[in-house]
Design a protein that fits this description.
This protein is of the alpha/beta class. Helix content is 48%, strand content 19%.
Length: 176
C-alpha cells in the first residue's frame, strides 16, 4: 500500500482532518484507520494524526510512531490553542521525536480544534479564584477552538498533503 492515514480522535476534530487527508491522497492504494483499530497494514508513507494531549500526542500514537521503520512519515493534529504558531512548533517538536531515525520525516500540519466542555468549566473555576490575563487568554483560546477545524483548516490540510506528494514524486524522480 502506498499511503496509510492512521489517527486517534477524542472529539472528532482530528478525524475531520484525517478524512480530508485521505480524500486528498491520490490513487486507490490508500487506507484510513484509527490507531486503536489498526490491523497490521503497512504502507510506504504514513500520515499520523493525533489530538494534542498537554503539548504532545497520546501514548497510542507514541507507540505507533516508534514502531514504524524505514518509511516516510507526516504528522497532523489538532490543538485547542488554535492559531498559536509558536505553540504548534513546540507540539511538533515534542511529537516528531517519536519518529524513528530510519524514517524520512516529511513535516507536520496542526490546526485548532474544539475542546471538551470540562476544560471550559475548569477555566471558569480558575477565573473565580484569580481573574488573570492568562486565564482570560485560556478562555478566549477555548472559544476560538470551538470554531475549528473549519473549512480553511481543511483547505490548509489539503494543501499540506498535495505539497508533500509533490515533494515525494520529485524525490523519486531524482533517485532514478
Amino acid at each position: 500500500m502506498k499511503y496509510l492515514v492512521v489517527y486517534t480522535s477524542k472529539t472528532g476534530n482530528t478525524e475531520k482532518i484525517a478524512t480530508e487527508i485521505f480524500k486528498t491522497l491520490p490513487g486507490k492504494s490508500k487506507d484510513i484507520q484509527r490507531v486503536e483499530e489498526l490491523n497490521g497494514q503497512e504502507a510506504e508513507t504514513y500520515f499520523v494524526g493525533f489530538w494534542n494531549d498537554r503539548g504532545t500526542c497520546s501514548g497510542s500514537i507514541m507507540d505507533f510512531l516508534s514502531s514504524i521503520h524505514g518509511k516516510r512519515v507526516a504528522l497532523f493534529g489538532t490543538c485547542g490553542m488554535s492559531g498559536d504558531k509558536e505553540y504548534y512548533k513546540q507540539v511538533e517538536s515534542r511529537v516528531s521525536v517519536f519518529v524513528p531515525d530510519d524514517c524520512q520525516y516529511l513535516g507536520c500540519f496542526l490546526c485548532g480544534g474544539r475542546m471538551r466542555p470540562e476544560i471550559l468549566q475548569k477555566y471558569r473555576q480558575m477565573q473565580q479564584v484569580n481573574d488573570s490575563p492568562q486565564i482570560k487568554k485560556l478562555i478566549a483560546a477555548y472559544e476560538e477552538g470551538m470554531l475549528h477545524p473549519n473549512q480553511e483548516d481543511l483547505d490548509k490540510a489539503k494543501r499540506f498533503v498535495l505539497s508533500l506528494i509533490e515533494n515525494i514524486q520529485t524525490d523519486l524522480k531524482g533517485e532514478k
